[in-house]
Q: What sequence folds into this?
C-alpha cells in the first residue's frame, strides 16, 4: 500500500469514528444501605448553632447525614433549627451530573446544590427527581437547612435522603480523534521522507 492510499484510508476511518465519541452512563443506587465501591467518595459537613461534627449514614431510603446532636440522623436535614447538613459526592475527576433521586422527599422540602464553579436552589413544591442537566464537575454537594419558617410551620426544616445519583463520563470532543490521527499521519510521512532521503544518500 503506497502512502497516498494509506492517507486516504486513514482519513475515511477517522471521519467515520469522529462522531462516535459518546458518554457512558452510570447509576449509583444507595437504597441498599451500603456504599458503592466503584462510586464517588462520600463526605459531609454540618453547621449551625449546635452541630460539632458529622458522619454519613445509610438506610433503605438512601444516604443521610448525622450532625451531632441530631434528631434525624438518617436524613439530610436542618435539625436543630438554624443548622445545616451537607452530603458530598466526590469522584476526584470530572463527571457529567445528570440527576439525583431523593427519598423521604415532600413538596415542602428544598435544598442547595453546589458544584465546581456554581450552585443552585431546588424546591419547594417540585418532584423528588432533580434533573441536573449534565453539570460538569468532579464533585457535587447537597445541603439542607433548618429555618424558622419552613415546611409551612414556624419551626420546620428540610429533611430527605439521597437515594440515587446518575452520572455520565465527560465525552471526548469529536475533533480529538481527528487531531490524533492527523499527528500520526504527519509522523508517518516524516519517517517515510527520512528513510527515502537516507536511501538516496547511500546510493
A:
Amino acid at each position: 500500500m503506497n502512502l497516498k492510499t494509506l492517507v486516504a484510508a486513514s482519513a475515511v476511518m477517522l471521519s467515520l469514528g469522529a462522531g462516535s465519541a459518546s458518554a457512558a452512563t452510570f447509576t449509583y443506587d444507595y437504597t441498599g444501605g451500603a456504599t458503592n465501591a466503584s462510586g464517588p467518595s462520600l463526605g459531609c459537613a454540618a453547621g449551625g448553632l449546635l452541630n460539632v461534627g458529622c458522619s454519613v449514614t445509610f438506610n433503605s431510603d438512601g444516604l443521610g447525614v448525622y450532625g451531632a446532636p441530631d434528631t434525624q440522623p438518617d436524613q439530610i436535614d436542618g435539625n436543630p433549627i438554624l443548622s445545616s447538613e451537607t452530603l458530598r459526592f466526590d469522584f476526584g475527576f470530572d463527571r457529567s451530573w445528570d440527576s439525583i433521586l431523593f427519598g423521604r422527599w415532600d413538596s415542602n422540602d428544598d435544598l442547595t446544590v453546589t458544584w465546581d464553579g456554581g450552585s443552585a436552589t431546588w424546591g419547594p413544591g417540585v418532584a423528588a427527581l432533580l434533573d441536573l442537566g449534565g453539570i460538569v464537575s468532579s464533585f457535587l454537594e447537597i445541603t439542607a437547612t433548618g429555618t424558622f419558617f419552613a415546611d409551612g410551620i414556624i419551626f420546620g426544616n428540610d429533611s430527605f435522603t439521597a437515594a440515587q445519583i446518575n452520572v455520565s463520563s465527560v465525552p471526548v470532543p469529536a475533533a480529538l480523534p481527528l487531531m490524533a490521527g492527523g499527528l500520526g499521519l504527519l509522523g508517518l510521512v516524516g519517517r517515510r521522507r527520512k528513510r527515502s532521503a537516507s536511501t538516496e544518500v547511500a546510493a
User: Anything to note?
Assistant: Residues 81 and 146 are 5 Å apart (CA to CA). The domain at 25-168 is CATH 2.60.120 (Jelly Rolls). The chain is about 20% helix and 40% strand.
